[in-house]
Structure formats: structure tokens, C-alpha cells
């Protein structure tokens, strides 16, 4: 055989061996990168209340903003922020949406959760609705009546603050503890004369009662905050992911401001309600991500009320400032943090 032929075959064999080695190294590198990616994308369960206040969460999920941040967010629907927070505290969720009241009440008993940010405020979410047959046509008529409330939630605080504002002693009423989805049946059946309930249950009640629904005017001055809460085990272990979650929420809020009609369509589809409902709630919603001193002030006031009225045990209020975890929000939007360490 000619020497040049042997040389060519040896060259081909060498090339093949080098190619195989290169492919093996590439496969190993790909496996390594895939493993690293999987480690970075450990799923987070977010318990989200079925309310228009959760719209930024719905949009971040629907438009892929969580995914764009490299997150695997799994939404778990719940009726009311108090139940969402319960999921978190029972280790069935990593994150939760909740208004200020459930945070205040639970802080008297435990400190294994933190507030990461407020993403919407409103003074019109909770509404006080009476049935016409009860004879209630104005707030003063509520004395002596049976009123359904969700205890330990914004419903209860709103009602008692409202009554004090209009000059009715809350002790002159019979408060009936109900979950929000039971309110409509209770007032329709005459088991209560009025209800204090949040959206969308307030809208569904007025629609069902029609002309028999008497909606009391807003006079309490209570501004509800809706917040993203995280389990304390995430602090120090998932800091980057917490920042990514907040960045996705911030992007969703920008989407709401830039494309309100598209945002409304997502809200309608998510809650399976009509345009009339969206029109009913839209103007009262203020979407803005932040952590402000006003949140601390609100929670401290609610804690004093809860102690004074005997709704909680203990002579001292929790340290609500210490329950704010500001670092993730500060890392993506420093100007939005007005409190904290």
C-alpha cells in the first residue's frame, strides 16, 4: 500500500477520535448547564387570591413575565387573602397575596413570614351592602342588625371602622362570621341583614339582589393594601428569585398602565366575569409596587384596634417594621422603598 494512503487513513482515524471526544465534552457541558439551569429554576408556589387586586400576578403569569425572569411560578388559587396566607403558613405555598389585616392578625402569633412589597392599594374594595327588606337605607339604621363579616380579614376591620365613623357602636350589632363565598346566600336567605365583603363578591351580591341591594356610601377612610408575602425560609436562600418575582410584578403593572384594555380583558377572563364588573372596580384600583411607611402606620393602627377590641391576645403589638424584607425590592427599584433596613 502506498505510504500516502496509510497516512490519510491515520489522519481520518485521528479526526474521528477527536470529533468523538469533542462531542462527548459538549454533551457533558450541556448536561452540566442543564443541571445548573434546573437548580436555578426550582419552582415557587404562589397562593393568589381570586380578586381584581391580584391582576398584576395574573398578568405576570399570562404574559410570561415570570418565565422571562427564569422563574417557575405555580399559581394556587384561593378565595381571600386570609386563606392564601394560611396556605403559606401551612407550607403549602412559598409566596402569597394578602391584605394588611391577615398579616396583622397572624403577626401576633408567628414571625415566619415577611412582606416583600405592596402592589395595589384601594379604598373601594370592601363594600357594605344591606338588603332592602331589613329596613336599612342609611348607615345609622345598622344598629341592632345582623351583619356578615369575614373575621380576621379586611372585612371585619372595614366594618368596625365604618361604624365608628358614622356614629354606630359596633357592639350594638350582631356580627355573623362568614366566608366570602357564603355571603350572598346568607343575605338572600335573610340570615343576615347586611354584609361587609370584598370584590368580586360585592359585585356578585349587588347583581343578584338587584333593586334590593342597598350599598352604603364609603366613609371609613380605610385604604386597603394588597401585598406580596413570602415565607421567611426564602430570605437569604432565594434572594435573587425574590427580586425576579418583584421585577415580573413591576413589569405587569407597567403593562396595566400601558395597555389597560388588554389588562381588563385578562381580568375578565381570569375571574370569569363581565365588562360591567371591570367597570365597577377599575377606577378604585391603584397599581404601584412599593414599601411605604404608610403600610407600617396602617398595620400598627390595626394592631391597636385588635388589642383594644379583644380580637387578639397580648398587651404589645408585633414589630411590623421587622416583618418587612426590603432587600429584593430595593435591588430592583430603590426609590420604591420608603421604610426598612
Describe this structure in words.
This protein has 341 residues and is α/β, with parallel strands linked by helices. The protein has three domains: 40 residues; 195 residues, Periplasmic binding protein-like II (D-Maltodextrin-Binding Protein, domain 2); 89 residues, 3-Layer(aba) Sandwich (D-Maltodextrin-Binding Protein, domain 2). It has 13 helices and eleven strands. The strands form two sheets. Strands 2-1-3-10-4-11 form a six-stranded mixed beta sheet, with helices on both faces. Strands 7-6-8-5-9 form a five-stranded mixed beta sheet. β6, α6 and β7 form a beta-alpha-beta unit. α2 packs across α10, α9 packs across α10 and α10 crosses α11. About 4% of the residues have low confidence.
Summarize this structure briefly.
This protein has 341 residues and is of the alpha/beta class.
Please describe the structure with a list of short key phrases separated by commas or semicolons.
single chain; 341 residues; alpha/beta; D-Maltodextrin-Binding Protein, domain 2; 3 domains; 6-stranded mixed β-sheet; 5-stranded mixed β-sheet; 13 helices; 11 strands; 18% strand; globular
